[in-house]
Design a protein that fits this description.
The complex is a heterodimer of chains A (about 800) and B (about 160). Chain A has about 800 residues and is an alpha+beta fold. Helix content of chain A is about 30%, strand content about 25%. In chain A, the strands form 8 sheets. In chain A, strands 3-7-1-14-11-12-13 form a 7-stranded mixed sheet, with helices on both faces. Chain A has a 5-stranded mixed sheet with strand order 9-18-17-16-10. A 5-stranded mixed sheet of chain A has the order 20-21-29-30-31, sandwiched between helices. With about 160 residues, chain B is an alpha+beta fold. Chain B folds into 2 domains: about 1-75, Beta-grasp domain (Ubiquitin-like (UB roll)), CATH 3.10.20.30; about 85-160, DNA polymerase, domain 1 (Orthogonal Bundle), CATH 1.10.150.120. The chains are: A alpha+beta (about 800), B alpha+beta (about 160).
Chain lengths: ~800, ~160
């Protein structure tokens, strides 16, 4: 069993330092290239024809008028498309590329190619399509009823995903206080800054795909499934993206570009405009939590019971959000919850940053707060009392989908000697919220500022101020869709290159993965470069999703570097150190050294070791390639990241307007590989979470399900002055026994924590709970409803 | 052909009257640092300077720029030497994905020309015409303050 060593990650040369990101100069000079900035010679432009109806089947397509547009080249319809289902990561899309049925307003129906974007747009408008209209359904509750219009062959509702532990009846009997809830969450839009484009170019029977994506390998898998061609004939070159949060993984418009290019025999570029990005790709689900929770008079939780709905829109196929936010409260001995994924005739919904944590998690936090208020315990102490810390059991193993069984299957073939250093499965390996809450409340001055539940900290005229605290947790990547791999190559000059297929959506992986490898190889960061996007040179990787990049890919990058180091030291031992045991050697600043300089005091440059290798092998090998040589333990069963955030808000009870006055983020992601990068990411999560809490809402037409505010004018985002510029981030670094140098995941727990903190702060300011987004109208309505209830 | 003056040099673009300045900068001149996102003047990604004034180039026709001095992000650095505001954005990491960054740096340049010694609150308001969806705002404020310091130091040294 791995020892929980608190000193992992201390005193390192590269890891732990706030180095500038590798692409900083490209970003500030505007030279970094995203998907929209690429072109290939002789390419043509594609435009997607979109469904004007919420649910309809094509009966006739007539492209004759489009053919007259100067520059028209060709059209792709469902008749040209292999009728294979393809799947994006985590069931964010499941369906055919085109099948002649539109399942939401804006759905992809066909595509045209022309010599210019303008000609393509004009031709697309002139394609005449007749539709047979089908009945449509937009509400999750309606869509799951018998006799509802069926959106998919598999039916509208997925099998429920559930977790149950203990005995809820016992937990209910033990409760002195209970609360229940029925909360509906509107959809948040990714609202990307930066559009996306995809170029597909066929070379014989091979295709090259250039686009912005966080999941290069999954995109290649999707093309493989959609077209039924071997993976070896597909090359994805994934580029950096604008803000993504899970939007740009593998998307159907990329499949259309591939098929349209094959159909017209030319390279095709499809660029989505802003409205297409917001209205036709995907979004956060609409969700609804119903449930109850109970606790003793001393404030110990006795049970959870939840029934949670998520709306998958047209092509989402998810069923499993949110077990991390429930796990976090796992001191509670009895629980039962179910998630139901339901399709509707609205734009596809998928994983947006903190999927489930921002919704089901917010419901759990609100109910916990209501219980804490009933028993008169402040929210910091209530969390410390009921949330897990390292060593506690993780409840998600009691899954109705038999996660424990799946894990047993996963480890069955791993020999015992490779498992001996694994942490105990199904128990939290490191971290927890307690240290975050203690540090954060001290730094925030919680005890001095707290005036009691539903009590403003300041009241003046129509102004009420309140403070709040929220917590969030998330997994650090998941192994069930495949083991993320990485490769490290040491070049003849002793520099190294990492090949790891992850995203470059602004989270700094191009820098932090290289930092992990630089640390392991004893190289300065400048000597380590990285390729993140090319599936021809990178081994399969899950990509940047589920907060996996630093944890699961970082583990693979480090193991690959270890393998390089092992080979390097073996050659050095033989050729330069009198055949000593290679374990007596080490790397330091680009040189191989003996751990005991008294025995050998020479320092041999990596380049000299590699030259030796070259001469011995007659020039056949001039570089060393490394890969992980041991299996990564199934980290879903033990690794979590935690965030706690503290906020002060000001609410005008006359206008309903909310201002954010103060914010403190405290984060446990194990060892922090690059504090500058991570602080920025944590603050970004707090801001995105605050937007979800007070502004952001996709508004859908009630008759058609069409998005009404699919642009940045009508869809409101926080601006620079809307968030406190002196907000701080503090770290508690409880090192992980498996992650690289003790690091864990980071991106998703902080968004959930921020949402809960703002929601609670508003409650404390005005004395009522407001459903999110807490827009001025909703705040005023909630205050009025409470006033009416008392009169 | 229409002649524009971009980053101090005359350049030619086509006479088409139907295209935006952003489009001409990106596609005729290869100046991809001018980013287009919302295309309705709301996000600020495509901000450039027109005779020193910040403008959203997605809403301006290319022909309207004839005879005016255009500055894009590509016109800020002096060879390999970054502009002080760019250097400050590197040092404070005033970005994540980087898509909004050129527009923000151009806005910051115009803002600091008007207000060379701003408070943090003034910077936060001054930068609110540009959206950063990643939420790097506090680091953007720090970067603009640091950029202001650098510019003042350069001016002081020149005196």
């Amino acid at each position: 069993m791995a020892k929980h060593d608190k000193n992992i990650g201390k005193g390192l040369k590269v890891v732990g330092h706030g180095l500038h990101v590798k692409d900083a100069v490209e970003k500030v000079t505007g030279t970094i290239r995203y998907g929209v900035d690429y072109e290939v010679q002789n390419m043509v432009h594609g435009r997607i024809i979109r469904c004007p109806h919420p649910h309809a089947r094509i009966t006739r397509i007539d492209a004759s008028k489009a053919e007259d547009v100067p520059g028209f080249i060709g059209i792709l319809t469902h008749d040209d498309v292999p009728q294979n289902d393809w799947e994006a990561a985590w069931f964010n899309y499941r369906g055919k590329v085109l099948d002649g049925v539109g399942r939401f307003v804006g759905d992809d129906m066909a595509a045209v190619a022309a010599t210019t974007p303008e000609a393509a747009e004009k031709a697309a408008e002139l394609v005449e399509i007749d539709y047979e209209l089908l009945p449509a359904v937009f509400c999750m509750e309606e869509a799951r009823k018998d006799g509802a219009p069926q959106i998919r062959d598999e039916g509208n509702e997925r099998d429920p995903y559930g977790v149950a532990w203990g005995d809820v009846a016992v937990g209910k009997a033990a409760a002195d206080h209970t609360v229940d809830c029925d909360i509906f969450y509107e959809s948040q839009q990714y609202a990307p800054l930066g559009r996306n484009a995809c170029i597909a170019e066929w070379m014989g029977d091979r295709v090259n795909v250039i686009t912005s994506s966080q999941t290069p390998s999954e995109l290649r898998d999707g093309i493989h499934e959609a077209l039924g061609i071997p993976l070896s004939k597909i090359r994805v070159q994934a580029l950096p993206s604008g803000s993504s949060f899970g939007q740009w993984w593998s998307n159907n418009f990329m499949m259309i570009a591939v098929l349209l290019a094959r159909k017209v025999g030319k390279a095709v570029k499809i660029e989505l405009d802003n409205e297409e990005c917001m209205a036709t790709v995907k979004r956060r689900h609409q969700e609804r939590t119903r449930g109850s929770m109970g606790c003793t008079a001393e404030g110990e939780l006795t049970y959870f019971e939840f029934d949670h709905l998520i709306d998958n829109g047209g092509y989402g196929f998810k069923d499993d959000v949110g077990f991390f936010c429930v796990d976090m409260w796992g001191k509670n001995g009895h629980g039962d919850y179910q998630i139901h994924g339901i399709n509707t005739n609205m734009v596809t919904a998928g994983c947006m940053r903190g999927v489930g944590d921002c919704t089901l998690g917010a419901s759990v936090e609100r109910m916990a707060d209501q219980l804490a208020e009933k028993v008169g315990i402040d929210p910091v102490r209530f969390r410390i009392k009921n949330q897990i810390v390292a060593g506690d059991e993780l409840r998600m193993q009691h899954s109705r989908h038999n996660i424990k069984g799946a894990v047993d299957e996963y480890i069955k073939n791993v020999p015992e000697h490779l498992r001996k250093d694994w942490p105990e499965l199904f128990k939290l390996s490191a971290g927890g919220t307690r240290a975050l809450l203690e540090l954060g409340s001290e730094h925030f001055g919680w005890d001095q500022r707290w005036k009691g539940w539903a009590t403003p900290t300041h009241s003046d005229g129509s102004i009420r101020r309140g403070i709040g605290v929220g917590t969030g947790a998330h997994v650090c990547g998941v192994e069930f869709e495949g083991a993320s791999n990485a490769m490290v190559r040491m070049n003849p000059d002793g520099s190294a290159k990492v090949h790891a297929a992850v995203g470059r959506q602004g989270a700094g992986a191009e820098t932090t993965q290289a930092m992990v490898v630089a640390e392991e190889l004893g190289l300065p960061l400048d000597q380590v470069a990285i390729e993140t996007g090319d599936t021809d040179s990178c081994p399969w990787n899950h990509g940047s999703l589920a907060s996996s990049t630093m944890y699961r890919t970082g583990w693979a990058s480090r193991e690959a570097a270890r393998d390089v180091k092992r080979q390097l030291l073996a050659i050095a031992a033989k050729e330069f150190f009198d055949n000593v045991d290679p374990d007596e050697l080490d790397v330091d600043d680009g040189e191989v050294v003996h751990r005991d300089p008294a025995k050998h005091n020479q320092r041999i440059r990596f380049a000299d070791v590699l030259s030796e290798l070259r001469s011995e092998t007659l020039g056949q090998t001039s570089s060393i390639t490394g890969s992980p040589r041991v299996p990564m333990p199934p980290s879903t069963t033990f690794a979590r990241q935690f965030g706690a955030q503290f906020a002060e808000v000001e609410v005008d009870v006359e206008t309903g307007q909310i201002k954010l006055l103060d914010f403190l983020c405290v984060q446990d992601s194990g060892t922090v590989v690059n504090p500058q990068v991570l602080k920025n990411q944590i603050i970004g999560a707090a801001i995105c979470g605050s937007g979800f809490a007070i502004y952001e809402e996709m508004i859908f037409d009630q008759e058609t399900g069409a998005l009404e505010n699919g642009n940045l004018l009508d869809y409101k985002l926080l601006r620079c002055a809307d968030f406190p510029h002196d907000a701080e981030v503090l770290f508690v670094e409880d090192p992980d026994p498996v992650g690289p140098f003790g690091a864990r995941g980071a991106g998703e727990s902080p968004i959930a924590a921020g949402i809960a903190a703002v929601a609670q702060a508003v409650h404390n300011a005005i004395g009522v709970w407001v459903d999110m987004p807490m827009t001025p109208e909703r705040v005023v309505a909630a205050i009025k409803a409470e006033r009416d209830r008392h009169t | 052909m229409t002649v524009l003056k971009v980053n101090g040099r005359p350049v030619e673009i086509s006479d088409r009257g139907d295209r935006t300045l952003a489009d001409a900068l990106r596609n005729d001149l290869g100046l991809i640092g001018t980013r287009v996102s919302c295309a309705e003047g709301e996000c600020g990604s495509c901000t450039i300077l027109v005779d020193g004034q910040p403008s959203t180039s997605c809403l301006m026709l290319a022909q309207q720029a004839e005879g005016k001095e255009i500055t894009t992000i590509e016109g800020l650095a002096d060879g390999d030497n970054l502009h002080p505001i760019q250097q400050a954005f590197v040092e404070e990491q005033g970005f994540q994905c980087g898509f909004c960054t050129p527009g923000l740096i151009i806005s910051a340049k115009a803002f600091l020309a008007e207000n060379p010694n701003p408070t943090a609150d003034e910077v936060a308001v001054g930068m609110s015409g540009n959206i950063c969806r990643c939420g790097a705002y506090p680091y953007i404020v720090k970067a603009v303050l640091r950029g202001a310091e650098k510019i003042r130091a350069v001016a002081l040294a020149a005196e």
